[in-house]
Design goal:
3-stranded antiparallel sheet; alpha+beta; 89 residues; two-stranded antiparallel sheet
């Protein structure tokens, strides 16, 4: 049996906020994967990687000690999510 935990937050002060959260702190300590998406370039997320201007749905996957990978995240067909003025569907 495998157990997966997903934690999502904005990039604003991610490391400071994350280190105060016991679940996120444990995930960081265990070397869990992190998906860095669009955000402020000045904000370092983890292991010196910063958010960047990226196309919608694209991100950089950091997992353990393996090389970083650029990936595409997509919604299932027909799914509509309202992100304010932007519509994805």
């Amino acid at each position: 049996m495998r157990f997966h935990v997903f934690a999502a937050t904005t990039s604003d002060n991610w490391m400071q906020v994350g280190l105060m959260n016991k679940v996120v702190k444990a995930m960081i300590a265990e070397g869990s994967g992190v998906l860095v998406m669009d955000g402020d370039k000045r904000e370092k997320i983890v292991r010196g990687v910063a958010a960047a201007d990226r196309a919608p749905g694209r991100g950089e996957l950091l997992y353990g000690k393996s090389a970083n990978q650029l990936i595409q995240v997509a919604l299932p067909p027909g799914r509509i999510v309202d992100f304010g003025a932007n519509r994805v569907g």
